[in-house]
UniProtKB/TrEMBL annotation:
Keyword Repeat found: yes
Organism of origin: Microbacterium koreense
Keywords for this protein: Repeat
Protein name, UniProt field: BglG family transcription antiterminator
Pfam families (UniProt xref): PRD, PTS_EIIA_2
Lineage of origin: Bacteria, Bacillati, Actinomycetota, Actinomycetes, Micrococcales
Gene3D superfamilies on file: Mannitol-specific EII, Chain A (3.40.930.10), PRD domain (1.10.1790.10), Winged helix-like DNA-binding domain superfamily/Winged helix DNA-binding domain (1.10.10.10)
InterPro entries, sorted: BglG_antiterminators (IPR050661), PRD (IPR011608), PRD_sf (IPR036634), PTrfase/Anion_transptr (IPR016152), PTS_EIIA_type-2_dom (IPR002178), WH-like_DNA-bd_sf (IPR036388)
Residue span, PRD domain: 284-390
Annotated PTS EIIA type-2 domain residues: 493-633
Length: 636
């Protein structure tokens, strides 16, 4: 547990990139500030002469050797290390392990090893594997496919402590596993071969496939190959299998059988590659998948007022869903390293993805996992980014006295350097322009303006890098102030002193949701069915969108009016896989569909800043104080 909390601490600091106090970090992890100080010392010890976490008057922040510390292997002999060692031993020996010899090898008592075997049993939940103990021997029972899935889980557990890297894969398979140094060249050659066939390669999924190839090679070398699948291989599998066979033989010196090649070809086809530009994806789509995706996308567009009904988007998403269905049949799930950042940075997009994933689950019986939902969110985000890019442009006027073509050169430089952030709609070339008539979002002027304001930015006649940075900062500041101003206007009517609870105790998420929901039910805003649907939504994917805030809500916007019930927890309470200090149960009305995006994204943005959260939680001792602090944070 200590190692997991140390890694959690380091991950938070790496992700935020800013100073954080010991008390703020303690709230995020659920420990005392004193524990934070001991964790910092332990993490820095991993870095040797380097610095993984810097200390200063403002608290702690990630140091230059943070990434190295995350990848340092678990200290031998810790409970987590023993658990992984036991699982590897059980998977490696078909006839089981001798309990007494294993205890002696690990330098622990027989009682300690019995306790570790109990933890192995807990790990086997849902794996179709069982642990049998008979006298001095312990043995795993289950299919080879199930044992490989357990080994895959072990590898992912190693990688959760840090980024996906080949050293973590080697630790998961065991230091004696074959071909550890060959995984990198194998990956490179596989990508080259796939590109040569005209495929687009998903770099996020390629690491997972290399892991499964390594597992397959390791198991085959122990005479534990897969039997051939009953179904005939698809044309894509027939195309990819020879490539995999050739590369594994070349780099790992292992001959894979038909069953392994068919399985790995399926993983490559459904997890790593998409048809190239010359292929027509629609020709490969299964009709029921395409029909389901079209219906669900149309529903999501109507429900959330998002512009996603586009043919290219539907076809690409349908291809992804089809691949997901094939992988689901073999429980070959794909990890997504961007899941957490997508959820915290783009909560509205992630919620649309949850809606889509749930609807597809009901139609196609595809299981829901956060990592798979995150892939759908990436498709949706990509589509919305194309639609929103024009909406995010700020208008600008350039003020530059006419002198030959000087103003034309300046406009050209602005368009080239800042064209994705602003749109120049006018150029004033007079020495005495009518400043009051200039109503654009920004005024880029080579002369001192008569009035000051955040929309006026002084630039040079020949645009410099410093000018570009100043304009970008000003543009970002204006966008943020407008977003938060809209948020404040929306929020004013959503809160009620009767729907505010301070001192929320640690309890299951459903219990807290029912407590906050009851406050809105009493006001006639929602009914009990809405509360239960909020719990169902929570079960689909945790609504802890940041390290401090959970926003439980139902998928349907059926409230009589939009309202928010607030629960403040001090200290933080468990929620999903993390901890939160603020729970905002949001009930949306159908009449406020447009406000959904504003409230959702900007509300989460406010609570993604650690200092803001601490200020609101510490000073928001009652409803009036909470509103005052929230307004102060929004106003900056």
């Amino acid at each position: 547990m200590a190692r997991a909390r140390q890694d959690r601490l380091l991950s938070i600091l790496v992700r935020d990139g800013q100073w954080a106090t010991a008390s703020a970090l303690a709230d995020a992890i659920g420990v005392t500030p004193r524990s934070i100080r001991s964790y910092v010392a332990a993490v820095n010890a991993r870095a040797g002469d380097g610095v993984a976490i810097e200390s200063g008057p403002q608290g702690y922040r990630a140091g230059p050797d943070a990434a190295t510390a995350l990848r340092v292997a678990e200290t031998p002999g810790t409970p987590r290390d023993r658990l992984h060692t036991l699982v590897r031993a059980l998977l490696a020996h078909a006839d089981g392990i001798d309990v007494f010899e294993t205890a002696e090898t690990l330098h622990v008592s027989e009682a300690t090893l019995d306790a570790d075997l109990g933890r192995v049993r807990a790990l086997l939940g849902g794996t179709e594997l069982t642990l049998e103990r008979s006298a001095a021997r312990a043995r795993l029972h289950g299919t080879e496919r199930a044992q490989r899935r357990l080994l895959s889980r072990l590898a992912h557990d190693e990688m959760d402590a840090g980024s996906f890297d080949l050293e973590a894969l080697r630790r998961a398979l065991g230091t004696e596993s074959l071909g550890a140094d060959a995984f990198g060249p194998l990956r490179s050659d596989l990508v080259t071969e796939l590109n040569g066939l005209g495929y687009f390669v998903n770099e996020i999924g390629i690491a997972d496939v290399v892991m499964h190839i390594a597992i397959a090679a390791d198991r085959v070398s122990r005479d534990r190959g897969l039997d051939a699948a009953g179904a005939d291989p698809t044309p894509a599998q027939q195309e990819l299998a020879p490539i995999i066979a050739r590369l594994v033989t070349r780099h790992l010196d292992v001959e894979l059988g038909a069953g392994d090649l068919q399985h790995l070809a399926m993983l490559v086809r459904t997890r790593v590659v998409a048809p190239g530009a010359s292929a027509d994806p629609r020709m490969r789509l299964e009709p029921d998948v395409e029909e389901a995706v079209r219906e669900v996308v149309a529903q999501a567009a109507t429900e959330f007022l998002v512009d996603i009904v586009h043919e290219d988007f539907i076809v690409r998403l349908a291809m992804h869903v089809q691949n997901l269905r094939h992988r689901a049949r073999e429980q070959a799930w794909s990890r997504n390293p961007l899941t957490r950042s997508l959820k915290s940075t783009y909560p509205m997009i992630f919620d649309v993805a949850v809606f889509v994933a749930n609807a597809l689950h009901e139609r196609l019986d595809i299981p829901l996992l956060d990592d798979e939902i995150a892939y759908i969110a990436m498709h949706i985000g990509g589509r919305l980014e194309r639609s929103r890019r024009a909406d995010q442009l700020l208008s600008a006027t350039i003020v530059c006295p006419g002198y030959y073509e000087l103003h034309e050169l300046l406009r050209s430089s602005v368009d080239r350097s800042l064209g994705q952030a602003i749109e120049v709609v006018g150029v004033e070339t007079r020495v005495d322009p009518d400043w009051a008539s200039i109503d654009t979002d920004l005024v880029l002027t080579t002369m001192d303006p008569p009035a000051s304001g955040e929309r006026f930015v002084r630039i040079q006649p020949f645009l410099t890098d410093a000018d570009v940075e100043r304009v970008q900062v000003a543009a970002g500041r204006i966008r943020r102030s407008r977003r938060l101003a809209r948020l404040r206007a929306d929020l004013e009517g959503y809160f009620s002193p009767d729907a505010f609870v301070r001192g929320v105790p640690a309890a299951p998420e459903a219990e807290i949701i029912r407590r906050l929901g009851a406050l809105l039910v009493a006001h006639g805003v929602i009914d009990e069915d809405y509360v239960e649907r909020t719990i169902e939504r929570e079960n689909l994917s945790s609504t802890a969108f940041t390290d401090a805030l959970a926003v439980p809500h139902a998928l349907g916007m059926t409230a009589t009016r939009t309202a928010i019930a607030i629960g403040i927890a001090e200290p933080s309470i468990p929620w999903g896989e993390g901890r939160v200090q603020v729970v905002a149960l949001v009930a949306f009305s159908e009449n406020d569909r447009e406000a959904f995006q504003t409230v959702f994204e900007q509300f989460v943005e406010v609570f993604s800043e650690r200092e803001s959260v601490q200020r609101i939680v510490r000073r928001g001792t009652d409803f009036a104080a909470f509103l005052d602090e929230l307004a102060a944070v929004i106003d900056g």
